[in-house]
Amino acid sequence: MSERREHEFAGLAFVACMFIGAGIGLAFDRPDVGGCIGMGIGFLAMAIIHTKKVKPTPITIRLPKSLGQVALSIIGTLIIICGLCLLYNPDLLYPYVAGIGIVIVGVVILLSGLIGWYKN
User: Fold this and answer.
1) Taking the domains of the chain in order of start, what are their residue ranges?
2) Which keywords accompany this UniProt record (predicted)?
């Protein structure tokens, strides 16, 4: 790996530490102090990366094939719940029509997710 890539990695580590410190500082209403602490930790991380010749390794993320079906099932269930909540408050005719429509859309989405789930 080239020297340039190592410097880029060290710079990213510095920026990450700085923002993490600022975020923690915001949680305690002192982003200035958190930013300073984050910068100090970032400079220390840069020094360690340069001294130890730490090199970044590529990360691969593999999602399961059933993720789409799970997502559709969750979305379908949420839409059904929203439709039932609309039906719970029957002040006008509109909530009935909208609630039934939303429940039907949710059932279709849920069934498409479950059908894909069982095919795998």
Assistant:
1) 3-52, 67-119
2) Membrane, Transmembrane, Transmembrane helix
